[in-house]
Design brief:
By secondary structure, the protein is mainly α. The protein contains six helices and two strands.
Length: about 120
């Protein structure tokens, strides 16, 4: 799976949230100052060429929708970070974020309990 630029990822986040939409709907969800229609349209076409987005024709326009699930992309991105910065060690990554964000042992235990509860469901 290809890596996305920040602009491409921003558009994907909106499509994942909306489920589908035309360029105007995507622009509406972007923060001010809004980019030009052609800019967003170009980014959507790049996402299409990267096989992240597909479309269906509706009238004279296109309705775009994600082909890649957010969880798939998230997992791939996190694995890339772990491999690139933490030599493939999730333990090193968690340790880094605990120290960097000053997470206490009790907070970490709460996080672990939430993970265990989700896995049990």
């Amino acid at each position: 799976m290809k890596q996305l630029t920040k602009a491409e990822e921003d558009i994907m986040q909106i499509l994942w949230e909306l489920g589908e939409g035309n360029v105007a709907a995507i622009i509406e969800e972007l923060p001010d100052p809004k980019p030009a229609y052609n800019t967003v349209s170009t980014i959507v076409r790049i996402l299409e060429s990267k096989d992240f987005v597909d479309y269906r024709k509706e009238g004279r326009g296109h309705i775009y929708f994600p082909k890649v699930k957010k969880t798939e992309y998230s997992n791939q991105s996190i694995n890339k970070i772990v491999d690139g910065y933490f030599q493939g060690s999730f333990k090193s990554m968690v340790s880094f974020f605990m120290k960097k964000n000053d997470i206490s042992i009790s907070e970490m235990e709460t996080i672990m309990q939430e993970i265990n509860n989700e896995n049990a469901s």
